[in-house]
Amino acid sequence: MRILVDADACPVKEEVVRVAARHAIEAVFVSNSWMRLPDDPVVSRVLVADGPDAADDWIACAAGPGDIVVTQDIPLAARAIAAGARAVSPTGKPFTDANIGMALAMRNLMQDRREAGTMESRNPPFTRKARSEFLQVLERLVQAQRRGSRGPRRRSPALRQPPIRALALDR
Which of 43, 124, 156, 167 has its CA 20 to 30 A from that of 35? Predict the structure, then answer.
């Protein structure tokens, strides 16, 4: 198991290293330029050639079952999922087989609208809440991978209901 990070403009590098160090798994940061990374034995760096999708291509080829890919790039997330890996955005949104198709469709729609000039491209600022959500989701994904399941354990709705209390009929 590895955590593969699309490191160019990734705002959660330190959080990835914290989770990787806690579980003693390798965190591979892939970028097309050198960047300062935390000095930790779990951290490794891959520098790829300049190019629009060089880091994405490297990650897509390297990702496989058991790996977790951290990326904002929805097409890369789709490629990682197709390779059997799990994917999560830096805001904590997990990409799955069930939602990646819709995410790709929305991305393409928004790209078409921006190109047509009917919409401005504004990314919301990265918040503490998003950082916290990412940390929680990454932790759950790592634990799920360790258990060998495809997702976090969820109790069935029947088990989540409060217990039925017996009514005392003797008065």
Answer: 124
pLDDT in the model for residue 149: 60
Q: What is the DSSP letter of 126?
A: P
Q: How far apart are CA 111 and CA 157, in angstroms?
A: 39
Q: Note whether 17 and 42 are within 8 A (CB).
A: yes
Q: How would residue 146 be classed by pLDDT, with cut points 50, 70 and 90? A: confident
Task: Write out pLDDT tens, residues 53-84.
Answer: 899 999 999 999 999 999 989 899 999 999 99
Q: What is the DSSP string of 11-79?
A: TTHHHHHHHHHHHT-EEEEEESS-------TTEEEEE--SSTTHHHHHHHHH--TT-EEE-S-HHHHHH
CA–CA distance from 59 to each of 33, 53, 121 (Å)?
15, 10, 26
- Whether the Cβ atoms of residue 72 and residue 92 lie closer than 8 Å to each other: no
